[in-house]
Amino acid sequence: MAMLAGAYLWIVAAHVIFVIFWMAGLFMLPRYLVYHQEALAAGRADEAALWVERETKLRSIILTPAMIAVWVLGLLLATVGQHWGAGWLHAKLVFVLLLSGYHGWAVGYAKRLAKGVMRLDGRTLRMLNEVPALVATAIVVLVFVKPF
Length: 148
Ligand code: HEM
Fold this sequence. Notes:
By secondary structure, this protein is mostly helical. The protein has helices at residues 8-41, 45-80, 87-114, 122-128, 131-145.
C-alpha cells in the first residue's frame, strides 16, 4: 500500500471521474423509469420496448461498471490514505450504502417494468427521482467539510 501513496491524487481523480459517471447514470435511470411507466400505462408497447432497451444499455455500460469502480477506488483511498478511523468516512459509507441500495431498487424497478409490473404511482416515482441528488449532496459535504 505504501508504494501507492505517491499515486494518491491520481486515485482521487479516477475516483471522482467514476463518481461523475455513476451519478449521471443515477440521475438518468429514474427519469427513464417515469417515461417508461407512462408509455406502459398508456398502452404504447413499442415505446415501452424502447425504454427497456435504453435502460438495459445504461445499466450495463455506465451504471454498474461505474458503481464498481467507485467502490474499489474509494476503498483503496480509505486504505492508502489511512482514513479508516475518520468519523466523516463512516458517515459517508452509510450514505454510499444508501446510494447503492437506491441503485439496486431502480434496476429492480426497471426489470419489473420490463415485465409490465407497475408498483408505484407516477407521483411517488417522480419524488424518488430526487433521492440521488440529496444523498450525493450529503456525501460531498462530508468529503470536503469533514465536519467530524
Ligand atoms: C464507495 C465507497 C466510497 C469510499 C470508501 C470513498 C472514500 C473516499 C476517500 C477515502 C476519499 C479521499 C478523501 C481525502 O483524501 O480527503 C474520497 C474522495 C472523494 N470522494 Fe469518495 N468514497 C466512496 C464513494 C463516493 C461517492 C458515492 C461519492 C459521491 C457521490 C464520492 C465523492 C468523493 C469526492 C468528491 C472525493 C474528493 C475529495 C477530495 O478532493 O479529496 N465518493 N472518497
